Amino acid sequence: MQEAMKKRAKELLASGEVTRVIGWKKNEFDYDITPAVFESAEEIDRDFRYDDFCGPNLSKFTFKNQKNDTKTLVFLKPCDTYSMTQLITEHRVNRDALYLIGIPCFGKIDIEKIRADGTDGILSIASEGADVTVKTLYGDKTYVKADVMAERCLACKSKYHTIYDELMGEEGEVMETGRFNEVEKLEAMTPDERFGFWRGELSRCIRCNACRNACPACTCESCVFDNPDTGISQKAAADSFEENMFHIIRAFHVAGRCTDCGECSRVCPQHIPLHLLNRKFIRDIDKLYGEYQAGEEVGQRSPLVNFTTDDAEPDIVRKGGK
Amino acid sequence: MPISEFKPKIVAFCCNWCSYAGADLAGTNRLNYPADVKIIRVPCSCRVNPIFILRAFQRGADGVILCGCHPGDCHYTTGNYYTRRRMTLLFSMLDYLGIEKERTRVEWVSAAEGAKFAAVMQDFVKTVTELGENKRLEDRRCKKP
Amino acid sequence: MVRISLDSVNALFAAIAEREALYIPTDTAPGIAQFKKWQSGMEMTERLKTSRSAKDFFFPQTENLVDFKVSGKKIDIIDPREETEDFVIFGVRACDAKSFEILDRVFLSEPVDTYYQNRRAHGTIVTLACSRPSESCFCQTFGIDPAAPGGDVSAWKREGFLYLEPITEKGRTLLSGLSALLEECPEDAVEAEKESIRGILKKLPLASLTPDAFGGGKTEKYFDSEKWKSLSEACLGCGTCTFVCPTCQCYDIRDFDTGHGVRRFRCWDSCMYSDFTKMASGNPRLTQKERFRQRFMHKLVYYPENNDGIFGCVGCGRCVEKCPISMNIVKVMKTLGEDET
Amino acid sequence: MNAETLIPKVGVVTEVRIDTPDIKNFRVVGTDGKKLFVHKPGQCAMISLPGIGEGMFSITSSPTNTEYMEFEIKKCGCLTSWLHKIEAGQEITVRGPYGNGFPVDDAFVGRDLLIIAGGVGLAPVRSVINYCRHFRDRYGKIDIVYGSRTKEDLAFYEEILHEWMSPEEKDVHVHLTIDREEEGWNGHVGFVPNYVKELAFDTDKTVIMCGPPIMIKFTLAGLKELGFDEKQIYTTMELRMKCGVGKCGRCNIGSKYVCKDGPVFRMDELSELPDEY
Hints:
By secondary structure, chain A is an alpha/beta fold. Chain A is 37% helix and 14% strand. In chain A, a hairpin with a 2-residue loop joins strand 6 and strand 7 (131-136). In chain A, helix 3 packs parallel to helix 4. The longest helix of chain A is centred in the last third of the chain and has 15 residues, at 275-289. The termini of chain A are far apart. Chain B is α/β, with parallel strands linked by helices. Chain B has one domain: Rossmann fold (3-Layer(aba) Sandwich), CATH 3.40.50. Helices cover 38% and strands 16% of the residues of chain B. Chain C is α+β, with helices and mostly antiparallel strands. In chain C, the strands form two sheets. In chain C, strands 3-2-6-7-8-9-1-10 form an eight-stranded mixed β-sheet. A four-stranded antiparallel β-sheet of chain C has the order 5-4-12-11, with no helix packed on it. The radius of gyration of chain C is 22 Å and the shape is globular. The chains are: A alpha/beta, B alpha/beta, C alpha+beta, D alpha/beta. Chains A and C meet through strand 2, helix 5 and helix 10 of A and helix 8, strand 11, strand 12 and helix 10 of C.
């Protein structure tokens, strides 16, 4: 696939159809991937990469690096297309300046899972079919890909592309992989257990804002947490309250717009399962206001800027009616 | 602190057009409701950002209640419909984080429902008193030494 | 040099904790190790690095500076500090131990930061040699030797034993109080371990990285480099690298109104944040390129210029592992340094 | 210096004077009624209202004023807006003095001085002016070029008229200018950089300059045209600051910290720094 993508990108550059290509490039190690803008065939030949480590969602990168006066080619994995569709719905990117190519994804590897297994001193990693071979300073290891795949990919919601100008490879389908299982497990706990669980997780937060800055739905010019006039601007959680507040509000601000791309959890340096907050909102919305998948099509109306006259009352939470 | 001594601090956001007038009516009719309820008047229940609710807890509230016009009666036609969705999701999230779900409430109180206002407040204060001090969503810096 | 069987290391921890607070790195989540106050039953992590550096002990993420009581036009100032107690940090790696020296040059230079100084005076550092360095490690680039990790006491793990060697007076005091648990051993007991570590160091993928192209006086050379743009284009402007970095020391001072007073606290800040230099009259660093450049210029050029050529990086590799888009000081050094050759 | 640099002292604002429509002058003493600390001309202090914020301001009074300190503050942000609301008797917190100050006791001694300021930029150099007037014999001729948008925007106008321009002053020459023609103004009209060129000073002077960046830029060019060298020109800078002691990293430009190594820089030192201010 990588070679086909490179070839197509170079063709489009050569024909003048596009002047920039947004894709991924390899960095220091096999698993280090950086989103990048390519402007020439030489750059593409040298650096362009697409493999099982290309996790970063290019939609946010496109939003940050967009140019109106020229056409940009963007490669999008299925889950990235949802974010892109949402950005277009919200008029945050200029669709006319983009040439979108949908590409298949077979699940991305989470290097942190390999590290958590105690594997260190990694010299190279190769992913072939179901096998992931890791060469390290301290001996070689082989993993089954499913064991080291990112959590978000194990619970992949869709292999289908919601938007593209051109598709490479086969179109996939929306899937049911039990992505709400973890949420349900938490819901089944007692409040004390849930409180304990979230305290344990959120107390690791270092307020680096990576979750916010990586999120394709977080595109405000100035975030409420950076605005001193709000009275809640914080640089660090000086009290456990602020950890709760930040994460509730972060998730709330993207509720109804979050496509569940999982970038927040991927980037968290402290491995906090932030997607479980977003998925709770998605789950509640689905149950209370009807199934809704943000980023499914352009022009959808988010459930939080919508209503019906017979919506459930907030009491439903207290009375446990759902 | 023994429960008998515990007086909860309650913040009540009331919409200007219905619930605030309802509270006023409760007052003019000399209906009793606990003095621990601090009313904050807002133009519409929809004005209440989830951050307001959390900030109230941060600054020492033990319970937060939001009162607005009955659905369909909003002065701005549809404001409270949005409130209803937002608060449902917020309360559900608080519950998900293990924070007592009885500490938050939304009630629809019209300008004519002075008695309802008093009854709701009495009931809410009673519920929160039974729960005791807000510990799970407190900011220790804001506790008076 | 003294040693103790690794099976009895818990007894050693208990003995230290009896006298002062003891912190050890322990696993708090899959793949995450953090320093935690030792309690009976807590196991030391097998991981090489804690996810956050050890700078927290001396320069915590948030810290209360001063309290104000405001009434009418009157202001009362209250120093909220309580006496800091002695504490021991066990299992600090060589890179983190070196980072304290870099922070010292900032916080202990005139005018001395007494908050930092106080903690520094009360802390005893027990370092642990890195038997299995990671691919992201490049401490040797900055002349750090993880086989001789420094600190107040240096420790090595080897064949079922923990070897300890006091380096400073503080370290000798700590060990002399524990002598009942420790047995004397020859001074060269860890030579084989040191050799093994140094052998691995040569094989690390970043072993050839050198800082020679950088240092004081190179501002003009790199400041206007064309390369900053492409290096910084993917930067999210988050604070991950800054907050996991053992040498980043920028902070913010903020006021928090508690409802019954005003608490002035300081907290870590990041030069990567868009509001870092924002003033009422504008912002001198308008794009991420400038913020990104500042962080690396500071570590590689400005800091050495002011500190006898010592670089503001210890090669711990945390930023290499943690950056969401895998852009880091190694890449910056390699890309900018290319021109040298 | 205070051993606890980050813990401020309480200061009392004894007088608030409206100087121009957007500039107020604050007199500050300690709670004991005495001056809080001794400073050098050009040094700054961190002033705060707890809960609002803290900001770096230059001390506009001369060290020779032994009774109180003065701050000249223009309303432009959050903290300054609050400061503009306070009345006499209000307590604030003050810490300092910070920065290097002007070399009034070495490099300036025996020199003819040319002081150029625009708008509220007069605040830091007023300290120098009054210091030099106090020790008049140590310095040569003093020329002051000061400009503002309009007549009413001229800071310290009364003091300029009645003290600096007083006939009793020895060899102090004040050249005022405003940006546009205005009724009741018979002085010079035009921008400061042009006025400096028109006045065509001889180059045997030390220049002290403070004002908006655009004024600095063009005045510097004008001075160079007249034959001045960068080594003769001093200016004072402003960047966002938090700690005031060169540790928080905010005002770092190149290897310098404006709060500690500045705010006063000689132009040749400044041009060596990266262009990030």
